[in-house]
From TrEMBL:
A matching Pfam family: Hydrolase
UniProt keyword Amino-acid biosynthesis present: no
Keywords, in A-Z order: Magnesium, Metal-binding
One MF term in the entry's GO annotations: metal ion binding
Protein name (database record): Haloacid dehalogenase superfamily, subfamily IA, variant 3 with third motif having DD or ED
Cofactor: Mg(2+)
CDD domains for this protein: HAD_BPGM_like
InterPro entries: Beta-PGM-like, HAD-like_sf, HAD-SF_hydro_IA, HAD_sf, PGP-like_dom2
Organism: Streptomyces atratus
Sequence similarity: Belongs to the HAD-like hydrolase superfamily. CbbY/CbbZ/Gph/YieH family.
């Protein structure tokens, strides 16, 4: 099947941000008295909007995170991005092939618009994405695993959900794409294949994705 729209997750798929952001999140939660390992952060929060952190901490401990939690977390992450962030190896080759083949694409991320733009500017991916091709969980009432974000992206890009394919690396993202009625390829660079159940296919590097999309 030739897909009419490729929807990319951002963190871990376009920009190699998951090790950076989950290390910082785990350290910050631990600092606030909620001991969290890096692996636990990946398990519980990878692919989710920041409100999930608030919800799970309160559910588990009965305590609310500080009012400035989001601002402080993003400040630390953005500072680290400026020093360390790189694009996912091979992703620009994939984008170039889509452009050459005339296949539309966009990004739909649980991250904020600011986070997406900071990451794209640092990695040079901003040259590949027009403003109207960027969608954030801020744009919908319910983030992943709800289907709202992917359905919004498809609607705005003018493509029926069943003609879309999503590129995801987290269980929450895969669940969201499947709920939207879209095909989904699971990127296994950070998450084992068995955690990305129900996908159309798995791939472990971007050269494989080029072949899958072709």
């Amino acid at each position: 099947m030739r897909y009419e729209l490729v929807i990319f997750d951002n963190d871990g798929v376009l920009v190699d941000s998951e090790p950076i952001s989950n290390t910082i999140l785990a350290e910050y939660l631990t600092e606030l008295g909620h001991p969290t390992s890096y692996q636990e952060s990946l398990r519980d929060y990878m692919g989710a909007a920041v409100h999930r952190v608030h919800d799970l901490v309160e559910e588990r401990t009965g305590e609310k995170l500080p009012p400035d939690f989001d601002a402080m977390l993003h400040s630390r992450i953005f500072a680290a991005f400026e020093q360390e962030l790189e694009p996912v190896p091979g992703v620009e080759d994939v984008l170039g092939k889509l452009v050459a083949d005339g296949v539309p694409y966009c990004v739909a991320s649980s991250g904020s618009h600011e986070r997406i733009r900071v990451g794209h500017r640092k990695t040079g991916l901003d040259q590949w994405f027009e403003e109207e091709w960027i969608f954030s969980a801020e744009d919908v009432g319910h983030g992943k695993p709800a289907p709202d974000l992917f359905l919004l992206a498809a609607e705005r890009m003018g493509v029926a959900p069943e003609r879309c394919v999503v590129i995801e690396d987290s269980p929450l993202g895969v669940e969201s794409a499947r709920a939207a009625g879209m095909a989904v390829y699971g990127f296994t660079s950070m998450m084992p294949a068995d955690r990305l159940a129900g996908v159309t296919g798995h791939f472990s590097d971007m050269s494989q994705l080029r072949e899958l999309l072709a």
